[in-house]
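1st attempt posting a full record on here, be nice pls
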Amino acid sequence: MEKSSYSYFTWAFIVTVVGLALGAWVGWNFTGTISGTLSIFFICVVLAVLEISLSFDNAIVNANKLKEMTPVWQQRFLTWGILIAVFGMRIVFPLLIVVIAANVGPWAAIQLAIAEPEEYSRIMGEAHLSIAAFGGTFLMMVALTYFFDEHKDIHWVHAIESRVSKFAAIKGVEIAFVLILMLIFASFLDETESATFILSAIYGLVTFLAVDVLGNVLDQQQAALEGAAKGGFGAFLYLEVLDASFSFDGVIGAFALTNNLFIIAIGLGIGAMYVRSMTIMLVEKGTLAQYRYLEHGAFYAILILSVIMYAQSLTHIPEVITGLGGAGLIGLSLWSSIRYNRKHGVEDSDVTPAPHAH
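the predicted structure (as tokens):
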């Protein structure tokens, strides 16, 4: 019997209830008033919705990579990977920024988050330029690598994608594109900020290339040992860095709503569980194969997110624009896929679901 779509979200619903109850408890402990508790409860809800809206494309890209991985590594990513995503990126990462930026120890950073949330938020804000440049560059490379592919034969926006794929034969074309865009944005910043932006962007580029090379080497070694070229630790590593890059925007955006690290961790942690549930559903139900342009919509959303992260080095862009823009593109690609299926008589039953990922 095939699982219903709702059943994939059982754990996400449980985490939502527990998380919101925890949010109310934190609210009461920090404010001691019902209005303060309700306010913090509402912020947790908004943060969860923000994370979900920003992460549709993340779930689709995760599913795209997961379907190539062995069941063992699929399971490892969906268990260990989600723990790293929730605790590593939503709690450890913001603390690590403060540790580096303020040159204090981890315990001092935690105390700063509890006792002086305004100062903690200010330090996070000062690190925003570096984070935007690093994360924007990494995500831009992820998107451009998808489009600059000479073997890519399915095109959603045919006029653009067919031409772009022809340029894929030129070695390093996507790197050149990123470097040009990096220099354009840096030219609008003052000398100090420009140097920080370029250095952070280069770190993002080097990280992408290093993860790509290391991932291929590790997976080739595993394939030689197992006799099957399936994704293992290399693909797992790629997905973790990709998840981290997606998280930058949500974590930084969260500080616009609250300075409290614990509220941010609760709200974004709830959202992260929905991303996991969506990923499993997409893999098991074969949704990516069923809707041929859905993947395209996700990578367009990633490309736009990367440009927005670059643009945030110049001006503030509300997170709602980022979230709605990505969700809108994915919705449009889904609608295009449904139209294609109707036109060509493709039925849901024509697609074979992937093996279970958990």
